[in-house]
Amino acid sequence: MKILICCLTMLVMLSGCASQVRTEYDAATDFGPYKRFTWVAPEVREIDDPILDSELLTDRVRAAVTAVLTERGFAEVAAGAEPGADFFITYHTASKEKLRSSPFSVGIGYGHYYGRWGHSVLFDGPDIRSYEEGVLILDVINCSQNKLVWRGWDTSLVNQRNYSVTAVREAVEQILAEFPPGRVNR
């Protein structure tokens, strides 16, 4: 019974770490003609978090987005090239400190004492921890109307511990799995 409770507790704790990918889009937009894209620079803003506002992260996000879109049959074109892009793409990051609480915490211990092995499970009161939640946002903007038509975001990526090339690529793949809306194995 104790092992079952411990396993369930760990499962609940790990589910809180799961990636949270969401999307929104303009339902009136026909994404079928979208074949070519170009990058547009995000708005210049005051640096809130030097970890997130870095050229390293910019290069990683741009490389991952370009690779994923290219693998899906989209073509990157230079700004001002003919024929022009059908859509612009850009990204934003944000982070904030959040609190995670659990009604109880569990400790498990094993030990050796006078030739015998033993274990114990300790249940304690509420457990409150702070953590950094980062958001990677990808925006698709219609070139002819200069209008945001699709937005996808992942709330698990960007923090000091996991904005590696691999983590960025995985987050971008998860976000762009929903682009374009209604995509059938493009």
From TrEMBL:
UniProt key word Signal: yes
Keyword tags: Signal
Keyword Signal: yes
PROSITE patterns: PROKAR_LIPOPROTEIN
Domain DUF4136: 21-181
Signal peptide: 1-18
Top-level taxon of the source organism: Bacteria
InterPro entries, sorted: DUF4136
Protein known as: DUF4136 domain-containing protein
Source organism of the structure: Exilibacterium tricleocarpae
